[in-house]
Design goal:
Structural class: alpha/beta
Number of helices: 18
Protein name: Phospho-sugar mutase
Low-confidence stretches: 1-17
Organism: Cryobacterium tagatosivorans
Cofactor: Mg(2+)
Number of strands: 22
InterPro entries: A-D-PHexomutase_a/b/a-I (IPR005844), A-D-PHexomutase_a/b/a-I/II/III (IPR016055), A-D-PHexomutase_a/b/a-II (IPR005845), A-D-PHexomutase_a/b/a-III (IPR005846), A-D-PHexomutase_C (IPR005843), A-D-PHexomutase_C_sf (IPR036900), A-D-PHexomutase_CS (IPR016066)
Strand content: 15-25%
Largest sheet: 7 strands, mixed
Shape: globular
Family: Belongs to the phosphohexose mutase family.
Amino acid sequence: MADAPAAPAPPAPDADAADPVIAAARAWLGQDPDPETQAELRLLVSAAVDGDAAALADLHSRFDERLAFGTAGLRGAIAAGSNRMNRVLVSQAAAGLAAFLVARAPAGSVPSVVVGFDGRKNSSVFATDTAALMAGAGVRAILLPRLLPTPVLAFAVRHLGASAGVMVTASHNPPNDNGYKVYLGGENEGSQIVSPDDAAIAAEILRVAAERLVPELPRAAYETAPESVVQAYIEATAGVALPPRVQVNTVYTALHGVGWDTTRRTLEAAGFDLPTLVDAQIAPDAAFPTVAFPNPEEPGAMDLSYATAREAGAELIIANDPDADRLAVAIPDAGSPDGYRRLSGNEVGAILGWRAAEIAANSPDGPTGTLACSIVSSPAMASVASAYGLDFVETLTGFKWVSRAPGLIFGYEEALGYLVNPAVVRDKDGISAALAFLSLASELKADGLTIAEHLDRFSERFGHFASGQISVRVTDLAEIDRVMARLRANPPERVGSIRVDSIDDLSQGVGGLPPSDVLRIRLADGSRVMVRPSGTEPKLKVYLDTRAAIGTVPERKAAAAATLDDLDRGMRVLIA
């Protein structure tokens, strides 16, 4: 008698059913056009199916959420998944932005977009994907001719009369990050997007992601902008400076970014001698090999600049961040171990604002216009505006707000961002700001003065303003919410030894500002403290500002520093 047939083997466990994130990852693989992120994701999925808990957790980190599109566009680490920067996410963003532009274009007209990119990993790939997909969606797409600074893209939106602009950059983020900044033309005048446009674009992106696979999105030929666009930016920016009366011995670093070529051509057009270069950092390099973090505010980022400046006997150091929309400045300082001191963003903003006020005061029409800064920047700008009879506007943090101040002649924020040429660029611009600062240094040198002496002149005329900052990095974002809630529920009566005069909760909208998760603490001695969550990092940030206007300049500096120390100690206790 024949043996009975063997029973069928039980089916293998369905890993997709066990954890839906595996199905989500496999679906993502089906539309990912990037071989690198495909391979990375396949390995993760295979490991997760085999029971690797770490791989499964990694998949959840990548797919449980989606990288949110907001007023800062998109920014994140380059990797596979909906919560990372990659070609799938960028393609969906491009198609969503295109739908937004087409829906809002006047009847019978074709909207347009200009796309720029810097030297970061995948920047050119993301930019060409964007241009091709925009063109496929019925938008006239113009790609800048090569990797260029963010300010050139912001300029091109207005110069070309485009409906929108996209800049692929993560500015000074870590090397493996990239991002996607969106500007709008027309009545927005080339400024970055703000609410409600950000939400409308985000809704279109989500609709595309839900309804279409990336390979199904149509592509078409796009235009490449001529070099004349870059030359037009250079000529317009060179006009920021007066012809130099004397030259200033300067060192320049691009921090491995894209700033140098455009900066060089702008300096030449304005008549300035070229600076001594930090050779190891001058060429674009997406690995940023000489810095731990490509941000001139970070410790160690400017060490090579200081070394080069010591060798050259430089009077000034100018640094751009990797996409050249920010400017850092350092001056000789015998009391520093490096021989140089990097000026704070508030110091640079104060004297550039003073320069703008002087120019306005000497115009044929008399002093008109607006000085502006973000709410977390020094109150010094308000004092300058008052002294010159100019308008002053405080905005929420970010140049999307600063650039929209009516009648703007100069705007800045303390995080090394300056807008010195609002008729040309409606965004922070580290190249025009560098030229304006170099022009100021040249004028001062011709009159026998240094930047350090000019800062003292500022303190003598307007009072000495001192600023400080506390940044608390957290692993649990809920901790930031708990601190903000505690401060709201139990408002402090003192910060350190100084009595609290009033507290503004900006979450309700104050003084015409849109609602924002910020507390503004005003103290009885005129000092001010701002508390807010960071918009880009898992940090709680506290900004401290005080002013001393009595006594000599050294006495004012000492008094302001003592108050700042008191505020620092007090706030660290309150947010502990």
